[in-house]
Design brief:
about 200 residues, mainly beta, Tumour Suppressor Smad4, 7-stranded mixed β-sheet, 2 helices, about 5% helix, globular
C-alpha cells in the first residue's frame, strides 16, 4: 500500500528552503556612495571666497567689531532652540521646491541624513550634475537675520545679499545675512530668505 501522505505541517517542515533571487540594482539607481560623491567645481570665479583676508564686508554682514559674527562653541549644528514668535514671519523660498517656514533649522542637500541634524527640517534638493553635496547648507533664524552655515560642502554656496556683492560660503564658515539674501547651491538650486507668505 502507498505510504500515508504527510500532513501539511510536516510537508512545510520538510520542504527545502530556496533563496529568492536577488534583483540587480536598476541602472541609474542611487546608492549611498552616489549621494556622498560630489563633483568638484571652482565656484570662486562667480563670487569672492569669504575667507579672503582683504575682503571688506558690508556693515549688515558683520558685527560691531567689523568681524564676521560666528556662533560660539555652545552653538550646536541643527540643535533645538526655543523658537521666538517672530520666526513665523519668515521663510526660505527654495527653487525648485516651495517656501519653507523658518520655525526650526533647515538643512539643504542632495541627501542629508536626519540623524546627523536632530531637530532640523531636512530638504532634499535635486542635483543631477552632483554639484551639491549630500549635506550642503544649514540655515536658521536668529532674530531678524538668517544664520547660514556651510556643512563642509565640496563646492560651497554663493551668497548674494540684496544690493551687495556675491560671496562664496565654504569650508564650514558661517555668515549672518539680512532679508532678501539669495543662496545659490549649484545645479540651478536657489533659496531666498523672505517674509512668510
Amino acid at each position: 500500500s502507498p505510504p500515508p501522505a504527510p500532513s501539511p505541517r510536516t510537508a512545510a517542515r520538510a520542504a527545502p528552503v530556496v533563496a529568492a533571487p536577488v534583483a540587480a540594482a536598476a541602472p541609474g539607481s542611487l546608492d549611498e556612495s552616489d549621494v556622498l560623491e560630489t563633483l568638484s567645481i571652482d565656484r570662486s570665479v562667480f563670487a569672492r571666497p569669504l575667507e579672503d583676508d582683504d575682503i571688506e564686508l558690508p556693515a549688515f554682514l558683520t558685527d560691531e567689531t567689523g568681524d564676521i559674527e560666528l556662533p560660539d562653541d555652545r552653538t550646536l549644528l541643527g540643535g533645538l532652540r526655543a523658537a521666538p514668535k517672530a520666526q513665523a514671519r519668515y521663510a526660505l523660498d527654495v527653487t525648485p521646491g516651495r517656501a519653507l517656514p523658518l520655525d526650526r533649522p533647515i538643512v539643504l542637500g542632495r541627501g542629508p541624513r536626519p540623524a546627523r541634524h536632530p531637530g532640523a527640517r531636512i530638504e532634499v534638493v535635486p542635483s543631477p550634475a552632483k554639484e551639491i553635496s549630500g549635506a550642503h547648507l544649514e540655515v536658521r533664524l536668529d532674530g531678524d537675520q538668517l544664520l547660514a552655515r556651510d556643512l563642509d560642502s565640496t563646492n560651497g554656496t554663493i551668497v548674494r545679499p540684496a544690493g551687495g556683492e556675491p560671496l562664496l560660503l565654504r569650508g564650514g564658515a558661517s555668515l549672518r545675512v539680512p532679508l532678501d539674501t539669495a543662496f545659490d547651491l549649484g545645479d540651478g538650486v536657489t533659496a531666498v530668505f523672505v517674509t512668510a507668505p
